[in-house]
Amino acid sequence: MSYTIDQLRAFVVVAEEMHFGRAAERLNISQPPLSRQIQSLERHLHVQLFDRSRRAITLTTAGAGYLSDIRRSLELLEASEVNVRRASDGLRGSVHLGFTLIVGNIFVPQLLKLAAEELPGVKLVLHEMNTARQPSALQEGTIDLGMSRPVPGLLELHSKRLPSDTLLAAVPKNFGLCRNYASSGASGLPILPVAALDGQDFVMYAENGPAYFYDLLRSIFTLWKVTPLTVQEIVEVYTMLQLVDSGIGVALIPSSARRWVGENTQLFRMPELEPHTIDSTLIWNKASRNPALKRVLELTDRLEFSSEL
User: Fold this and answer.
1) d(Cα 168, Cα 254) in Å, to the nearest integer?
2) In a 3-state reduction of DSSP, which class is residue 269?
3) Is the pLDDT of residue 85 over 70?
4) Residue 71: which H helix or E strand, with range?
5) From CA 81, how far away is CA 24, in angstroms rounded?
6) What is the DSSP letter of 28?
7) What value does the mean pLDDT take over residues 250-259?
8) Which of 37, 45, 43 is nearest to 15 (CA)?
């Protein structure tokens, strides 16, 4: 017959009290069942744990060694019980987070800080990946949560909108636009009308790159009836800004990318384009069984957008 956790705990209490009566009171049981538990444990081990030959009981040499081992085992067991309950409640574990460069630039540092403060038992594992890759990564289980541009029409995914970004114009300082539109707006940046983009050398998002930005800019050009002259098509905003700083052409960038603007580039606000917001979303699998994901999603309610990065 195997021993039970109750027997082990009873043994520790008796060893601490060195008195069956006091030990029974601590365990809230009567003395006879307690004595039977200890006897059953000794029979299982084929070892006498207590010397009962005198008026006061004492631990045998074998009992003293066993006590040290059982205390460590019970501490580990109790810690495991706490851990499994915390994991079930989403307070322990890991959440794998996929993010695009620009969206992550805005929100990932905030989320890491909140998680460190409020979910210290949850590890956020970061995976940089583009928007197109994230839905399949969620389905494969590579990530638990995605930060991306909007991904329409995926019925198996939940989504949640994040605070929006706006477009700014990045213009080489040697372009005439910087001389013609030099007055500052209320934000401290000069203002550029959309019409000024017509015919300008332009660094465009590649058609086979970030589809969200390509489609957004094409719709803006059509709506406002402007036709910039595309001189380069680029996938990454960081590279786009390097080309602008080299004097290649103008670009429209998310305001959150302004930290990468070079010294030879002038930024402009474009109030006409501010209604054309740059949206970001959280996406996750409806079938996810990761309880820590729910806790992290609760933190995302407090994420904020600021272009002053």
Assistant:
1) 6
2) strand
3) no
4) helix 61-88
5) 24
6) T
7) 92
8) 37
How far apart (Å, rounded) are the C-alpha atoms in residues 68 and 138? 47
d(CA 304, CA 8): 52
Q: State the pTM of this model.
A: 0.67
| Residues 200/177, Cβ–Cβ less than 8 Å | yes
Confidence class for position 309, pLDDT limits 50, 70, 90 = very low
For residues 62 and 20, the answer to whether their CB atoms sit within 8 Å is no
Tell me what the mean pLDDT of segment 137-156 comes to.
85
Is the per-residue pLDDT at 249 higher than 80? yes
The 3-state DSSP composition of the chain as helix, strand, coil percent (nearest 5) reads 45, 20, 30
DSSP 170-208: EEETTSHHHHHT--B-TTSSBB--GGGGTT-EEEEE-TT
pLDDT, residue 128, reads 93
Residue 138 contacts by C-beta under 8 Å, 6 or more apart in sequence? 98, 144, 146, 157, 283, 284, 285
Tens of pLDDT, residue by residue over 196-244, are: 999 999 999 998 877 889 999 999 999 999 999 999 999 889 999 999 9
Residue 35 has a CB neighbour count (10 Å cut-off) of 16
